[in-house]
Amino acid sequence: MKLTALGVWGGYPTRDAGTTSYLLQSESGFNLLLDCGSRAVTELEHELQPTQLDAVILSHYHEDHIADLGSLRQYRQLYPLGQDGWDGMMLPIYGHRENAYEFSKLTLDKVSEGHAYDVENGTKLGPFDITFIKTVHPVINYAMRISERRTGQVLVYTGDTGYFEALKDFARDADVLLADVYFFKDKSKMPNHLSSVEAGEIAKAAGVKQLILTHLPQFGDLDILLTEAREAAGNAVSTDLAIPHKKWQLL
Ligand SMILES: [Zn+2]
Ligand SMILES: [Zn+2]
Q1: Cα separation of 227 and 233, whole Å?
Q2: How far is residue 109's CA from residue 92's CA, in Å, rounded to a whole number?
Q3: Which ligand neighbours the alpha carbon of 61 most closely?
Q4: Can you tell me which residues the record assigns to a coiled coil (predicted)?
Q5: Is the separation of the CB atoms in 56 and 69 below 8 Å?
Q6: Which domains does the chain have, with CATH numbers?
Q7: Using an 8 Å Cβ cutoff, are 214 and 20 in contact?
Q8: What local confidence, expressed as pLDDT, does residue 246 receive?
Q9: How far apart are CA 126 and CA 57, in angstroms?
């Protein structure tokens, strides 16, 4: 699997970078977009044609995770059929159905089709098996554990979440934990996002190989955020900060 950061800020875009969006590519060439925050479409263009996306999966329906869904669909709707092999494929968009209004908006005639992921039994999506856990957040958000069937590689993406114990088991032995870290260590047990130290502690307890901090705060020194998380995670975890177009090849 290859993971590429497209948007890394929490809340709103700034300083020439957008909000949460990641491209996850399987070895077999399946292109999955994890959340679709602001600027996702133009950032995606640096990696591939947005018409080459095979599916989108959403953690929740806050604007900083879905802001570019409309633009992505316009792109595919208006792209000339036959150009660069574009066949007008409907885009599957996976989300939870616990907000009926937001879920209904995922379907757009001839352009995209909303699919509810199975939060109880997991969902097969292309080359991936994905399981889910509801997190601590003001609206319903699902963290996802994405396992590539062929290689057994595992990426755990929190979406947005405050601290809760079960996240440690959910992230157990993952190759990568991509974690929402919107707070420095002076905050803890917040109802919406993790702190640097909390993310580090979860990564350590779960025994993950790599921790990537995302959903970054617009204020404060990000080097300090990284240092705090790194100290909490310990030496056994490789701790890294997301910046746009940074890529991680899972080994
Ligand atoms: Zn968010
Ligand atoms: Zn949120």
Answers
A1: 10
A2: 12
A3: 2
A4: none
A5: yes
A6: 1-118 (3.60.15.10)
A7: yes
A8: 87
A9: 12
Place of tokens 């940074």: 246
Ligand nearest to the CA of 7: 1
Phi-psi region of 11 (alpha: psi -120 to 50; beta: other; left: phi over 0): left
> Which of 190, 146, 191, 150 lies closest to 171 in space, CA to CA?
146
pLDDT, tens only, 147-192: 999 999 999 999 999 999 999 999 999 999 999 999 999 999 999 9
**201-217, pLDDT tens digit by residue?**
999 999 999 999 999 99
Under 8 Å between Cβ of 179 and 194: yes
Tokens of 169: 């088991």
CA 26 to ligand 1 centroid distance, Å: 25
Please write the tens of the pLDDT for every residue from 67-106: 999 999 999 999 999 999 999 999 999 999 999 999 999 9
Non-local CB neighbours of 70 within 8 Å, separated by 6+ positions: none
Centre of ligand 1 from the C-alpha of residue 185, in Å: 19
Ligand 2 centroid to Cα of residue 137, in Å, is: 7
Q: 41 CA distance to ligand 1 centroid (A)? A: 18
- What one-letter code names the amino acid at 102? E
